[in-house]
Each structure stands twice: as C-alpha cells, then as structure tokens.
Automatic annotation (TrEMBL):
Name the UniProt record assigns to this protein: Histone-lysine N-methyltransferase, H3 lysine-79 specific
GO BP annotations, alphabetical order: DNA damage checkpoint signaling; DNA repair; methylation; subtelomeric heterochromatin formation
Region span, Disordered: 1-110
Enzyme class of the recorded protein, top EC level: transferase
PANTHER family, per database record: HISTONE H3 METHYLTRANSFERASE, HISTONE-LYSINE N-METHYLTRANSFERASE, H3 LYSINE-79 SPECIFIC
Bias kind Low complexity: ranges: 37-51
Function: Histone methyltransferase that specifically trimethylates histone H3 to form H3K79me3. This methylation is required for telomere silencing and for the pachytene checkpoint during the meiotic cell cycle by allowing the recruitment of RAD9 to double strand breaks. Nucleosomes are preferred as substrate compared to free histone.
Domain DOT1: 176-491
One GO MF term attached to the UniProt entry: histone H3K79 trimethyltransferase activity
Similarity annotation: Belongs to the class I-like SAM-binding methyltransferase superfamily. DOT1 family.
Annotated EC: 2.1.1.360
Reaction(s) catalysed by this chain's protein: L-lysyl(79)-[histone H3] + 3 S-adenosyl-L-methionine = N(6),N(6),N(6)-trimethyl-L-lysyl(79)-[histone H3] + 3 S-adenosyl-L-homocysteine + 3 H(+)
UniProt cross-references to SUPFAM superfamilies, sorted A to Z: S-adenosyl-L-methionine-dependent methyltransferases (SSF53335)
Native organism taxonomy: Eukaryota, Fungi, Dikarya, Ascomycota, Pezizomycotina
Length: 491
C-alpha cells in the first residue's frame, strides 16, 4: 500500500523500435458461456467475475433445503467481513471519465479496473447528515450487542474502566458506542473499527487527506494495529489513536471536506456496500439466526440467501440498473437484496414476504439500514417492504407493471407458485429482467414447457460461482428472463 514512488534514474533514449503486427491464431476457450433455453439474441456476458470480496455466508429465502453439513457450513452467526483496497487500486470510480476532467485529483483517484457506467442522476451524499447540528441516528450500537453487560470479557490488557469507547463516522452524527471486548460470534470491536477507518480513508478522502489515517508507517490505523496485536496489547495507545482519529475526521466533516468529496461521486464501492449491510445484519438478524431455519418441508417458505457478490454482479454488471429504475424482490426474506439494491444502485426497491418472522426481521433491518446510512452520510434509494402472499398483494401487482428488474429465488417453489408467477409476468413491461434460480419455462415441471412462459419470455442460463449463495458452497445455475415486446409475442 505504498503512497510514494521512487524517482527513476535518467537513461539514454533508446533507439527506435520497429513494430510489426503478427496474427496469432486464437486458442479455443473453455470458459462457460450462457446457453439459451429459447432462441434469442446473444448475451453480452459469458461468465461471472466477482466484483467484490466474498463476505461471510448468509441466507436468503426459498432455497433447496440444505443437508446437515450445509446447515452447519451456512450458519448465520458470522464474523464481519473486512475487505481492504490497495492504495494503488482506487476504491471506486469510472473508466469512462476523462483523466483530465476538471483536473481534479480526487476524481482521478476514483478509477476502477472494471468499467461502470456513470449514473449522473445518482446523488450519494445524504444532505441531512451534514447539517449544522449533530444528529442522533437511532442505531443499534455495537456495545448493545457485545459488551461487559452482555457477558463478553474485555480484550487482553483492558481494564473495566477502559473498555468503553466511541467511533466517529464521516457525518455530523453522534458517535457509535463500542466496548473493547471479544467473544466468538459477537461483534469484534477492534476489527470493526479498523475496517470503518479503512473505508473512510479509501472512499471519503483524497489520497493526501487519507495519509494520516492509513499510511503504512505512521497513521491512526497503524498505531491501532500495533496496539492491538496479540503479543503486544496497549489499550491506552489504542484509545489515544482512536481519539486522534475521531478528532481529525470530525474536523474534515465540519470544514466541508467530506461533503465536497461525496458530491463528486455517483456510486459507492461494492466493498463499502457489503460492509454497511453486514453491520446492519450483525446487529439485527445475527442474534436471531436460529429462527431462520424453522420452516415446513415441502412448502414455498424454505429459506436461503443470495450473497453480496452475487447481487452486485446481477444489479451492476448484468442488468446495469440505474437510480431511476425499480427493483422488486418476490419472496424477499429478511430484505437483504432489497436493501442492497437501494444502497448500491440508489433505486426504488421493493420486497414482498409472507413469513411473519422474516417480515419482522426485514422491517427491523430497514430501520437500522436507514439510520446507519445517515451515520455513514450516504443516501440510499427508497425501500418498500410488503407483507403477505405476493399473489394477492395489490401494491406488488401494481409495482410489477413498472419494474425494471425482478428477483425471484424460486429454487424450492412449488409448481403451482411458479405457474402463478408466470401469469403475473404478463403485466411486466417489455424489456423487464427476471432473475430466478429455476427456469420459468418449466414452471416447476421439468417434463413440460410452460406455454405462457415460452410465449412471453426469452431466457438465458448462467452459472453462479461457489460461495455466492448461502445454501451451498458449490457453483450452480441461474436464469435471466427478458419480457418480450409486443411485436415478439407469439400469436
């Protein structure tokens, strides 16, 4: 993560080189390419490439019932994912922007290796987070989940009067309360704080502004890392470095630096999106994770989750959603992908769920999500969560008429429910994309093609990577169905 480069020695100018073009026969590719269930135009994506580090496993509703081994592997008592970005690899940005644009070094720093279309209508900064007064977001503090009061022992070397600390976020919001404790399957305060610091430096600050925060040799992060190593615990040094970090970041918030930088960007890096969502999940769902495994065999209510990299690939790379579009998740479980679409894309995001326990957790997640986005100073799209059977929900039926992307994890849906969904898709507008884990062409019956589906949908088949879903560590197939236009429909 070096910031400074060495000066190269002066050398004599090399003699001119002769360049010739040589045609090299291409070798056959073995990469899996999308296959068609029905004839249609060629797909633009031939294989999957993860766009963010894979976070810990989580579950989303409607998956194949896992085996006992898979259940243990997919338990939702998780550790928070920490993903760092090299200082030579900017956290986010767009290759289509000119390097000379405005001569702004911050914009130049925001380049990514994977090109992403700039959504100029997306406004990332949360205006309420940078007002004149300090706001009190109603978050679940880390100390509410991991503290001496909840039975967690202090980290080695910490006295009882030293465990309580606070963390400043990049906004004019009150700080989050932490305690320097550690217990398995609880929030790791030190790890969480270091990850927050890294995201703040990489996303909210220019390279020059970030040096006091993450410079390898002398920075707040380096001081905290040294003070918290297993063989050398120095709690007073850690607390001092944290206090200096809090003070410096607040100065940059109050003088307008952070707000100014956020106004120059139009999307958040996937690693930050994943981390914010993980913070929400760990504070709301993780304490109740065992309740997610309770379902009736043979029903439509089997639970499983699509993980962050999978959702990012679908939303950003394949459907290329923008903030003026509409996303709908039919069978949204605890609302993970609904929240991710709102944060990562900034679009209107809808979910519908019928299992009461999942609905309750989804609504609690949405509350924490709104407050935590304010804490981070970022503005998500509007989130709408509906309860009840999606086949009878009038609001969802109306929203489907305007939807641009629909997600249905129908891996374990009954044939009747899959067939009912195909009939609902008659109201989708031409071009709407449907992402599903089972093909609607067969609507749950592998031996007979659904005539309605075959007449209104063009279907592409893709493979997802291992560890992209909660119910299996293996890869698998998913489908993107496109609603045909009126001129394409069979008579």
């Amino acid at each position: 993560m070096g910031i400074f480069s060495r000066k190269s020695k002066l050398k004599a100018e090399p003699p001119p080189m002769r360049v010739e073009k040589v045609v090299v026969p291409s070798k056959p590719r073995t990469t899996l390419r999308p296959t068609r269930s029905l004839p249609a135009s060629a797909s633009s994506s031939s294989h999957l490439s993860p766009s963010a580090p894979i976070p810990p496993k989580r579950r989303r509703r409607h998956s194949t019932p896992p085996s006992s081994d898979e259940k243990g592997r997919a338990r939702l008592k998780r550790k928070v994912a920490t993903s760092s970005t090299s200082r030579d690899s900017p956290a986010f940005g767009n290759d289509s922007e000119s390097d000379e644009e405005d001569g702004d070094p911050f914009k130049k720093r925001l380049r990514r290796a994977d090109a992403r279309t700039v959504d100029v209508n997306r406004r990332v900064r949360h205006k309420k987070a940078f007002g004149d007064t300090v706001r009190e977001p109603r978050i679940i503090h880390a100390a509410d989940r991991a503290s001496r009061a909840t039975g967690c022992p202090p980290i080695t070397g910490a006295k009882d009067d030293e465990v309580a600390i606070e963390l400043q976020y990049p906004s004019r919001c009150a700080r989050e309360r932490y305690e320097l404790v550690w217990q398995k399957e609880k929030i790791d305060a030190v790890k969480d704080i270091l990850t927050v610091l890294e995201h703040v430096a990489e996303t909210y600050l220019t390279e020059a502004e970030s040096r006091p925060f993450i410079d390898h040799n002398a920075s707040f992060k380096r001081q905290m890392e040294r003070a918290s190593t297993e063989n050398y615990r120095d709690v007073p040094v850690f607390r001092s470095a944290l206090a200096n970090y809090n003070k410096k970041l607040l100065e940059l918030v109050e003088d307008g630096t952070v707000a100014k930088n956020l106004d120059k960007i139009h999307h958040l890096p996937p690693s930050l999106v994943s981390f914010i969502l993980s913070q929400v999940y760990d504070r709301v769902v993780a304490p109740h994770v065992d309740s997610l495994n309770k379902y009736k065999n043979g029903s439509d209510n089997v639970y499983g989750e699509l993980l962050h990299p999978f959702a990012t690939h679908i939303l950003v790379q394949q459907t290329k959603m923008t903030s003026d579009q509409v996303f709908v998740d039919l069978g949204s479980g605890v609302g993970n992908v609904v929240l991710q679409a709102a944060l990562e894309i900034g679009c209107r995001s809808y979910g519908c769920e019928m299992v009461e326990n999942l609905c309750n957790l989804a609504e609690e997640q949405e509350k924490e999500f709104r407050s935590r986005c304010l804490l981070w100073g970022v503005n998500p799209g509007r989130v709408h969560l509906e309860r009840g059977d999606l086949r009878a929900n009038k609001k969802i039926q109306d929203v489907l008429k305007t939807a641009d992307v629909v997600l249905v994890n129908n891996k374990a849906f009954t044939p009747d429910l899959n067939a009912a969904l195909v009939n609902m898709f008659l109201d989708l507008k031409p071009g709407c994309k449907i992402i599903s884990l089972a093909s609607f062409l067969y609507a749950g019956n592998k031996n007979a093609i659904n005539d309605v589906a075959s007449s209104i949908l063009d279907v592409d088949t893709f493979s997802y990577q291992k560890d992209w879903v909660s119910w299996s560590g293996q890869d698998g197939q998913y489908y993107i169905s496109t609603r045909k236009g009126a001129e394409s429909l069979s008579p």
